[in-house]
């Protein structure tokens, strides 16, 4: 007579291994958060391209070295807005801008977001608010190194002067940026949903995020149709830098604040296509982002300057950054001829 195998070892394994491991995982999530859960962050080392005579990067070297890479927005003076400005964006060819203000002690409290345009001659035939989203005529690309100020805008908005957007007040929103797709302007808004919350709330959010992906990342992006104000979740990301022609944007993805590691992505907004171009670690991990990035005037090249602790999540050699990336190419030109 065959002896039936005993299955008493199954609960023993569960009690000795699985349950303790699950308890440790849950405790870590409740205390320090889920790390890069849902951030979409990737690890990618750069491919180096040689700088040769006649190389397409040659025209951009003088341009980038002749100006600072900075991220300091200027704020227009507009009557009738509430609070203090903390971010603005403006598209000269469309005479359309967005202004973010706050009435609280810090920028995350009592936020307001306004679409606005500069007064222009011949703008007396005022349109309805939906006129703010009209066909876009892009400026000529020009040549590398040619500032957009040297080219005349080819179209202007003639809509309502100021309009406050009705965005959800419960969200902490940041860096509203205007981008173009299919002849229409859209507003891309970042949302900060920190994991620095009480342990019970943190654990509850973590468990719910298995069913709702929007609960996972700490930094999210929403796309708002300018003509209607409709806000739709797009994905994770933050710190957008739009190209002058508003077709592209560079964005970062990272884990929780203080993690110190980022992946950089090229967002072809017109085609809604995302390309990972490189990953960077902070030069002094935990002290904040140690690099900046900016676009060429013709929207075909990106300059990354500053310093990094390396391109890998762990390990690598700290170094300074003076890199150029060309849209449509796989790889970087290193102006300092260094490698990691």
Q: Could you explain the architecture of this structure?
A:
With 340 residues, the chain is mainly beta. The protein is built from three helices and 17 strands. The chain has helices at 9-32, 58-65, 199-208; strands at 48-49, 84-91, 96-102, 111-116, 162-164, 173-181, 184-192, 219-225, 231-236, 238-242, 248-254, 261-268, 273-281, 291-295, 301-308, 319-326, 332-334. The strands form four sheets. It has a five-stranded mixed beta sheet, covered by helices on one side. Strand 3 and strand 4 (111-116) form a beta hairpin. Helix 1 crosses helix 3. The longest helix is centred in the N-terminal third of the chain and has 24 residues, at 9-32. The protein is globular, with a radius of gyration of 24 Å. Residues 18-32 and 121-160 have low confidence and may be disordered.
* First-last Cα distance: 68 Å
Major β-sheet strand ordering: 1-17-16-15-14
Largest sheet: 5 strands, mixed
pLDDT averaged residue by residue: 79
Helix content: 10-25%
Using only C-alpha atoms, the radius of gyration works out to 24 Å
> Uncertain regions: pLDDT < 50 for 5+ in a row?
18-32, 121-160
Order of helices and strands: HEHEEEEEEHEEEEEEEEEE
Shape: globular
Compact overview of the structure:
The chain has helices at 9-32, 58-65, 199-208, and strands at residues 48-49, 84-91, 96-102, 111-116, 162-164, 173-181, 184-192, 219-225, 231-236, 238-242, 248-254, 261-268, 273-281, 291-295, 301-308, 319-326, 332-334. By secondary structure, the protein is mostly beta strands.
Notable traits:
3 helices; 340 residues; 4-stranded antiparallel sheet; 5-stranded mixed sheet; mainly beta; 17 strands
